[in-house]
Amino acid sequence: MQIKIFLQQLEESLEGLDSGTVSETTVFKELKEWDSLAILTLTDTIDLEYGVLLKKAEIESCETAQSLFDLVQSKV
């Protein structure tokens, strides 16, 4: 799993977000596009792409895109 691809998938989960906006240090929960639909979309994407089913609380426990990536990677 590559962080670059993961960041693109995270951006795609956030409706209306410009490509290249999210980096490893982005606190994604502070983005205005972060909402309940983004959580569902991201959860589905992670499940389909990596076979990892995350709970909402697990996602919300992550501060940055890098920490979310690390969480997913630890469960692959």
Task: Identify the notable features of this structure and list them briefly.
76 residues, mainly alpha, Non-ribosomal Peptide Synthetase Peptidyl Carrier Protein, Chain A, globular
Sequence-ordered SSE layout with sheet pairings:
Elements: H1 3-13, H2 36-50, H3 56-60, H4 65-75
Helix pairs in contact: 1-2
Description:
The chain is an all-alpha fold. It has a single domain (3-12, 25-75), classed as Non-ribosomal Peptide Synthetase Peptidyl Carrier Protein, Chain A (Orthogonal Bundle). The chain is 55% helix and 0% strand. It contains 4 helices and no strands. The protein has helices at 3-13, 36-50, 56-60, 65-75. Helix 1 runs antiparallel to helix 2. The longest helix is centred in the middle third of the chain and has 15 residues, at 36-50. It starts with a helix and ends with a helix. The mean pLDDT is 93.
User: What is the strand content?
Assistant: under 5%
What's the tally of helices? 4
The CATH architecture classification is Orthogonal Bundle
Average pLDDT number: 93
CATH homologous superfamily title: ACP-like
Q: Return the domain count.
A: 1
Text of the CATH class? Mainly Alpha
Low-confidence stretches: none
